[in-house]
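[Discussion] Sanity-checking designs against the backbone

I'm trying to build intuition for which residues belong where. Below is a structure token string of 298 positions. I'd appreciate it if someone posts a full sequence so I can compare it with mine line by line.
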């Protein structure tokens, strides 16, 4: 069994995808497998179509990938990617994180990665190509991943609940690219003297953040279409659906305890962080949070 079978054999998932009107041809199973095969191997639609288990034309594969991705996102994403919605769920996640890493009230870590795309068409005044041009001069979608202690991804909308203060005392851990906020624990910059309490704090949260970096590597090892050497030949809206579909399937794999590969190593240095921040009153709360954690660690 390959990981594409997780979608095909999981009754609820197959039913939800089948109900999506955009998928209307006869063999749903073949179409889902074609899309998942594309996610796995990258941008080679002709290779996917010539797979002896699939046999679809390249143009058909391209269309199927968009349709299946749309269906997965609109029918499955909210089932498998969700923020702990109740106080009890948040306490359970925070307790698990504290047991694993020794920090109270933390729900997980956050990181960014760039997914390469082809040059967008210049036909939408509200979404110009320049918005996708990164600092290296290439086109990409800056994708922000949030991860709980259970190795599952969160959506940006869910993480915004932290920003808005709608879930109380909890916070995430990010790298120095994020601004210091009451909901975001970040390293001290510049790096404190080695051996100091602040230095030990930096080392501690850096080690904890390795979990989300590792997960980013794992998802790119599973879904090679997300690797920087496999440019997504889709316009940004379709590319975003593909990215979200891969994250949804990853969470499905994790829920069903499917064996995961070792992470891909990456030399990517682009880390444009995009969570909106509050100013003024948030800085003092952020410093208090940081000092409390420093005292706890030491």
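Best answer:
Here's mine. Compare freely.
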């Amino acid at each position: 069994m390959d990981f594409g079978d997780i979608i095909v054999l999981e009754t609820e998932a197959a039913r939800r995808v089948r109900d999506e009107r955009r998928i209307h041809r006869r063999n749903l199973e073949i179409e889902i497998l074609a899309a998942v095969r594309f996610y796995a191997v990258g941008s080679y639609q002709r290779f996917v179509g010539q797979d002896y288990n699939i046999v679809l034309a390249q143009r058909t594969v391209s269309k199927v990938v968009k349709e299946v991705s749309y269906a997965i996102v609109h029918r499955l994403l909210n089932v498998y990617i969700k923020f702990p919605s109740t106080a009890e769920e948040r306490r359970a996640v925070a307790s698990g994180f504290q047991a694993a890493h020794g920090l109270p009230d933390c729900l997980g870590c956050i990181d960014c990665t760039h997914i390469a795309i082809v040059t967008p068409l210049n036909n939408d005044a509200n979404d110009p190509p320049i918005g996708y041009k990164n600092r290296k001069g290439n086109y990409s979608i800056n994708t922000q991943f949030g991860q709980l202690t259970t190795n599952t991804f969160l959506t940006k909308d869910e993480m915004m609940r932290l920003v808005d203060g709608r879930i109380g005392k909890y916070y995430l851990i990010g790298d120095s690219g994020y601004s210091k906020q009451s909901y975001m624990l970040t390293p001290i910059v510049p790096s404190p003297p080695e051996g100091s309490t602040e230095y030990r704090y930096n080392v501690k949260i850096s080690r904890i953040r390795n979990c989300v970096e590792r997960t980013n590597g794992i998802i790119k090892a599973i879904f090679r279409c997300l690797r920087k050497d496999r440019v997504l030949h889709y316009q940004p809206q379709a590319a975003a659906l593909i990215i979200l579909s891969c994250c949804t399937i990853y969470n499905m794999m994790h829920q069903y305890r499917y064996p995961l590969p070792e992470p891909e190593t990456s030399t990517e240095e682009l880390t444009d962080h995009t969570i909106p921040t509050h100013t003024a009153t948030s800085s003092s709360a952020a410093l208090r949070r940081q000092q409390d954690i420093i005292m706890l660690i030491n």
